[in-house]
């Protein structure tokens, strides 16, 4: 941390630390201006520092934007959605009793697919614009005049947090549309 590195890689940083040492480490890492990639089983430590959770599985890697509590909540929602889809499949396997022709069904499915694709495009464009806005705010926060003006810095930080939440919401919607 003394060499002003931009990235720290930490493997179980709290494993052999006592409570006071953990608090000192947490305080130092919270104030660290760069990026931190860490592996830990210490849930309190993860909740205190993490802004993104990366879940790695043999077939895929998933990023959750938030702390550990948010990750647990999202995993629970995913499980509930999987159970709901499974129950829908069971219902869908029953013989159809509707009188719609195959043509009408295909037409409706294509219409819904086009609508879904348009929404995905809108979300991607909106996320791109929000990321540009966030980059501009980050640049402004690096300006000494803005950095020293606590009110302006707080205003920009609040706006940045709001934009990040909007990006997170849009990313969740984008992911749900790709399922």
UniProtKB/TrEMBL annotation:
Signal peptide as annotated in the record: none
Source species, domain of life: Bacteria
Pfam families: ABC_tran_CTD
GO molecular function, one term: ATP binding
Gene3D superfamilies: P-loop containing nucleotide triphosphate hydrolases, Valyl-tRNA synthetase, C-terminal domain
SUPFAM superfamilies: P-loop containing nucleoside triphosphate hydrolases (SSF52540), Release factor (SSF75620)
Domain ABC transporter Uup C-terminal span(s) in chain numbering: 111-179
Alphabetical UniProt keywords: ATP-binding, Nucleotide-binding
Region (Disordered): 83-118
PANTHER family assigned: ABC TRANSPORTER ATP-BINDING SUBUNIT, DRUG RESISTANCE ABC TRANSPORTER,ATP-BINDING PROTEIN
Full protein name: ABC transporter ATP-binding protein
Organism of derivation: Gracilibacillus boraciitolerans JCM 21714
């Amino acid at each position: 941390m003394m060499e002003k590195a931009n990235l720290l890689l930490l493997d179980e940083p709290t494993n052999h630390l006592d409570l006071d040492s953990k608090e000192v480490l947490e305080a130092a890492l919270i104030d660290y201006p760069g990026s931190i990639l860490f592996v830990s089983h210490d849930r309190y430590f993860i909740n205190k520092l993490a802004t993104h959770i990366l879940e790695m599985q043999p077939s895929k890697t998933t990023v959750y934007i938030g702390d550990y509590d948010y990750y647990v909540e999202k995993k629970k929602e995913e499980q509930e959605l999987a159970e709901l889809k499974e129950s829908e499949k069971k219902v869908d396997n029953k013989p159809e009793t509707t009188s719609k022709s195959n043509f009408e069904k295909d037409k409706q499915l294509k219409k819904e697919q086009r609508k879904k694709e348009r929404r995905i495009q809108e979300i991607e464009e909106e996320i791109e614009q929000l990321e540009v806005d966030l980059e501009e705010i980050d640049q402004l926060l690096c300006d000494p005049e803005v950095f020293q003006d606590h009110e302006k810095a707080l205003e920009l930080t609040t706006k940045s947090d709001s934009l990040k939440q909007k990006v997170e919401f849009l990313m969740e919607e984008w992911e749900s549309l790709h399922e």
